[in-house]
Design brief:
The chain is an alpha/beta fold. The protein folds into two domains: about 210 residues, Isopropylmalate Dehydrogenase (3-Layer(aba) Sandwich); about 140 residues, 3-Layer(aba) Sandwich (Isopropylmalate Dehydrogenase), CATH 3.40.718. About 40% of the residues lie in helices and about 20% in strands. Helix 1 crosses helix 10, helix 5 crosses helix 6 and helix 9 runs antiparallel to helix 10. It is globular. The chain binds adenosine-5'-triphosphate (ATP). Adenosine-5'-triphosphate binds next to helix 1.
Length: about 350
């Protein structure tokens, strides 16, 4: 059976377009190996599109996202392109809300052959997943901020029972799957329950849901202590789950642990739709130079295959995901390929070529 999957592709702005080209080349290389096809259609959206047309996320693009089997997303936003209220153009937030992509999933692991900024020898075995609640928390305030004259501004943190239950369950089930694959099977919920009512509520719900998963070790930690411990001993964590704003901040922190944004893939996942994108932004400082590291985008495509494999009970796709991950690991392990953030000279094309050669070899 040579089944085809429809992938809506939104390259976006800046290096989003460059790393997307790499991921699509890798997908086309893996397709014949697993006997599957990917019908990748590109759709306009982003800050450049807004500057040209006044629309950041055209309705046909959102519709194409709804209809596709999965969405591959580059990066969007440019510092000099602003909406009427002065904020950046970030249609990825609109897509998250429109498709109810409530779980922001950010897996982080160290790669043999690439240095980490941490000197501790245990840093070589960092392997954790940060699960960020994507639809409420402090981001509920987006577009709802209140000015009190010119004296004060208020933004509201919203934590609902339904929203917290589903994200906690998502994290607990993920830990269950990781446990089946030989990992620890542990979830750390990150909050600030010692100060805020909303966060005490979050903690109570996490503890309720955790009781349904007795085989998973669970704990709660304050976000400030987590910022410390994620630098001191990140290897002791398996799955982390947290509200939207804390997740936004901690996902950059955990990306830094393995050498930067160019290595950090992510998925925004709901019950019906899945969008996969690198954790980094459009990096206007390096756009157009061919030096962006495409690894995060390539690994996001592998995450997409894993998610599709689960949804369609199609193990060939999971084989494709493993093949891409292995090719990425092998490309770096020998030391011949080293991205520029790691002090090397390898640009986008060289890294992409190295991964594809290993896929085909
Ligand atoms: P956003 O707010 O959308 O996350 P940002 O401007 O805060 O965007 P990025 O665009 O992710 O952040 O860039 C942060 C830094 O990381 C920049 O110096 C950028 O050059 C670097 N960077 C990001 N992604 C990559 C990549 N794939 N390869 C190399 N460097 C990258």
């Amino acid at each position: 059976m040579n089944k085809n999957y429809a992938i809506a592709v939104l390259p976006g702005d800046g290096i989003g377009r460059e790393v997307m080209a790499s991921a699509l080349a890798v997908l086309q290389a893996v397709a014949p190996r697993i006997g599957r096809g990917f019908d990748t259609r590109q759709h306009p959206a982003g800050a450049q599109h807004y500057a040209e047309t006044g629309q950041s996320l055209p309705a046909p693009t959102l519709q194409a996202c709804r209809e596709a089997d999965a969405i591959l997303f580059g990066a969007m936003g440019l510092p000099h392109v602003r909406g009427a209220d002065g904020t950046e153009i970030i249609p990825q937030l609109d897509i998250r809300f429109a498709l109810d992509l409530y779980a922001g999933v950010r897996p982080i692991r160290t790669f043999e052959g690439l240095p980490t900024p941490l000197a501790h020898p245990e840093a070589a075995r960092i392997d954790l997943v940060l699960v960020r609640e994507n639809t409420e928390g402090l981001f509920y305030a987006r577009g709802r901020g209140v000015m009190q004259g010119e004296d004060a501004a208020l933004d509201t943190m919203k934590i609902t029972r339904a929203g917290t239950e589903r994200i906690c369950d998502f994290a607990l089930k993920l830990a269950q799957r990781r446990r089946e694959q030989g990992r620890a099977g542990q979830v750390t919920s990150v909050d600030k329950a010692n100060v805020f009512q909303s966060m005490a509520f979050w903690r109570r719900i996490f503890e309720e849901r955790a009781r349904r998963f007795p085989e998973i070790a669970t704990e709660s930690a304050y976000v400030d202590a987590m910022a410390l411990n994620l630098v001191l001993k990140p290897w002791r964590y398996d799955v982390l789950v947290t509200e939207n704003m804390f997740g936004d901040i901690l996902s950059d922190l955990v990306a830094a642990l393995v050498g930067g944004m160019g290595m950090a893939p992510s998925g925004d996942i709901g019950d019906r739709h899945g969008l996969f994108q690198p954790a980094h932004g459009t990096a206007p400082d390096i756009a157009g130079q061919g030096i962006a590291n495409p690894t995060a985008m390539i690994l996001s495509a592998a995450m997409m295959l894993d998610w599709l494999a689960d949804r369609h009970q199609d193990t060939a796709l999971a084989d494709g995901a493993r093949a891409i991950e292995t090719a990425v690991q092998q490309a770096f392990a020998g030391g011949a390929v080293r991205p520029r953030e790691f002090g090397g000279t390898s640009g986008t094309a060289e890294i992409t070529r190295a991964v594809i050669e290993r896929l085909q070899g």
